[in-house]
Amino acid sequence: MRIMIGKIGEWFDHRLQLAAPIREVAEHPVPRSTASWFYVFGSAALTVFILQLVTGILLALIYVPSAGQAWSSLQALNHQVALGWFIRAMHGWGSNFMVAIVLIHMVQVFLFGAHKFPRELTWVIGVFLLLMTLGMAFTGQVLRFDQDAYWGLGIGASISSRVPIIGPFVVKLMLGGPIIAGATLSRFFALHVFVIPGLLIGFVSLHLLMVLKLGINEWPMPGRVVKRATYEREYQALTKQNGAPFVPYAIWKDLFFAAFIILAIAACAFYFGPFGPTGQPDPTIIQTAPKPDYFFLWLYALLSLLPPSMETPFLLIGPAVAILALIFLPFLSGEGEKSWKRRPIAVLTVMLISITLGTFTRLAQFAPWSPQMNAWSGDPVPDRFVHGTTALERQGALVFQVKQCRNCHSLGETGGKRGPSLDAVAVRLTQDQLIRQVIQGGGNMPAYGKNLSPAETTALVAFLETLHPPGQVPARDASRDLALGESSQKSPGTQQ
Amino acid sequence: MSTKPAIEPNTGPVIVPRNDASVSRRGFFMKLGILFNGFAAMVLAVPVVGFLLSSVTRGRANGYLSWVPLGKVSDFPEGETRLATFQNPYVMPTDGKTVDTACWVRHVAGEKFQVFAINCAHLGCPVRWFQQSGLFMCPCHGGAYYRDGSRASGPPERGLFEYPYKVENGLVTIQAGELPTPGAAIASLTGEKPPCAS
Ligand code: FES
Description:
The structure holds two protein chains of two kinds. By secondary structure, chain A is mostly helical.
């Protein structure tokens, strides 16, 4: 049997002549230090990419890229087609894992100084691979053609429209017409299924080729400095004289990690299930609060928190600056120390960026800046706030609910977080300040002057004045005390 | 598998130029061939680019922007703001539900209306009208607008987008067909910003 297989192998290799070059690639010597668990993320990213190709093709067997039918074909995948839900879940979780692994790979490469001479181009191509991965994540989110996808496209269009002069054309090019419709989905399908994956395959091949030609980055040693003149000779010495064959010396860790990642994705897919689709992409259903997928949440937070005047410059210039900085990085620091132990600024930069992105992402999960559209009708005023109050103050509590103040202001932990919590507002603002704030607005608050009758305002402010913790005295206007006497303002004990 | 290949790998035919004249002649033909292909590429590029840009070049004049009725004047009680829906004038067979669009119609008085786009002037999320507080609120980043569409608070830099409207034969009609975005044509078409709140 073995002889037979050997014969067949020989027959093929006589014609293909691939065995020798493949063996040479597999057994090329690598520095012994690279057989490390830190060096497995590149191959893991490739593994997940292949997994995405496979599950993507499987989904394409059922999915219909038409604005009229995409949503129902996803429903069919979830509920009608056997294990369709699992393949969808694998693809969705695979996407999250891929972005995460690519980011980890990038951080590892950066901290290990692998972007330095002579691997600058490998890094630059890696930057493109990151951008394409994010592009796949965004276009994939659009293909899950639900409410979030629809309004997400609107957000994309609104951002693009702000490009000076050509903005409106960019929008139409992106949407494939003047509105978000069938042509929009079709072109995102083409991008997600043909254009970007094609580019990805090409760039991944180049990336790998360069890793082979230039060798895997050796484990950085503090004090071993990269110099253009000598580096390649030193690396040769490291690999040729003291290296070990990649297969099997280093690859076994890659293999283990790849299998682990695939199982982890499968476990997530099995346990958490597929993402969406949420509601139908029907623009007349406006009861929706669209949110982007996980890896774009930080952007959602940023868009909510930037001052309006800074937003457009930030949106248009920020990404360009970030991409250029990444591309030029290896040319600006192509030599010198590789070890993170001697590169404090590099370490701090990574920490700063990850903490910033992490904080924004976390914030976006709560979205405190969004009004809670149903708080006014859904969250009653907690009992303790109306206990023992006067008729006027209760009337005020009613005004407070009916005028939707609650959508932005919380009372006793429930309600919106857009504005400050009002649990203790009477301690912060005097009666006059309350009236002015309600009528004229200010800060982030709209003016309610036109929407409140004088009676409603009086009642509302009377209610707000009761909002202070039991032991604390409400804010008082000292000048009024002087002019009109103490009795002109309420004190905690003397509620009429 | 055996360690030695059965035959020496084929290194390809060795080209020995016979004489310089024939090489330069072939070289000339090769250049001509490249030039010819360049010409073919250009011929092909015209329709390809034209096709790719068709969504941009199909101008407003070609009818994607047109007047669509929203309903009878009597459907919109005076002094109130109601949700209306209409179908986008330009429809493709694969559009599905996406051609249905919503907008807010405010009947100010008599024949005076304001028709607001559903899309927030910040980044296009669907704004919701709250009758009691007289505000439009946006679910995305917390933008708010007054009843006349002017900006009240939050990230939007301007008031809500307004569709041009007219009242004809008792029908409220708007000029629609384009997604209103902060930089896009609808905004510049209607020109003026909504009147200020105060
Ligand atoms: S889209 Fe409305 S506030 Fe951002």
